[in-house]
Amino acid sequence: MTEMTKINQLIAKHFAGDISNEEMSQLKEWLDSSEDNRLLFNDLKQSWESFNLPASSEDKFRVLSKVKARIKTDEIKEDKVVRPLFNKVWYKYAASLIVIVSVSILAWYQLNEPFSVLNTLGYEVNQCEAGTHEKLILSDGSQVFMNGDSRIKYKMNAEGSERIVYLEGEAFFDVARDEKKPFIIGLDDAEVKVLGTSFNIKAYPGDHSVETSVVTGKVAFNHMHGFLKKNKESMFLVPGQKGVINHSSDSFDQLSVNNELDIAWMQKKLNFKNTPLLEITKQLYRMYGVKFKLTDGSLEDLKITASFENEKLEEVMKILEMMSEFSYKQENNLLTIGKKGEF
């Protein structure tokens, strides 16, 4: 990803109202680095404020198609006309093209991100911060237990033939049975469909996999992939089974497991079995709300086997340090891990 592409994404998130504090700091640093950056940002802001994205799906896709067509037309024009570098006309054209591309990024983000401002209109959204757990009781009586750093959206007293929620993160569902109205959990590239059962879903952005683990009843686990996610694979899962989508290999596997281990987080239990240190830091962040930094990339794949139950983070880290080839230090809400003897 080029630096400008990254900046465009930060600007898009900022205009959409879905930018993190860390991302906002990166954007502010870019803005403060030059007057040209601030002028470009203001141009983009004016374009975004004048860009009224319609609400209906038909209109949204029509607007996005027009934006993409405009970009393609401008790219063809660029190929046909040779312009001297740094020419004022070329600069204005380039700035105009950046505005169009940025608006396209914003439109695409709003249309395809389930938790964008546009796609959460009319929904209840619950955010469970890292270091906490949260319990929800939906209008149909279904219960949702959310792990740290997770969010869910749903409609209260929704009409229709289905009960639909969307999850980003990890949650345990205990679904009230209604054979006339299936319960569906929408994920990034998958969905889970049930009538009434209990199961755990782990689907964090950035993780290498999406997992569904069944405790009671029967679950349909569907994987959508390929061009525009039109290809669909399905499997049925019962207690003692887990479905796993591996993003790296695009595999879709059914495993026989001890499902109790998949819901151990609900009792603040941690179970690591040859688990890479990078994955361990993710789980610790979600449970304790403390951010982690590794000073050496080789530490990411350090394998660790250990179990903990209701331990304080300080105790967990002391034991892991004694068992493994690393040292650490903690300053406020940041825990830095380095090689043995580094701290």
TrEMBL record:
Superkingdom to which the source organism belongs: Bacteria
UniProt domain Protein FecR C-terminal: residue ranges: 269-337
Signal peptide range in chain numbering: none
InterPro entries: FecR (IPR006860), FecR_C (IPR032508), Ferrdict_sens_TM (IPR012373)
Pfam families reported for this sequence: FecR, FecR_C
Positions in coiled-coil regions: none
Keywords associated with the record: Membrane, Transmembrane, Transmembrane helix
Name of the protein in its database record: FecR family protein
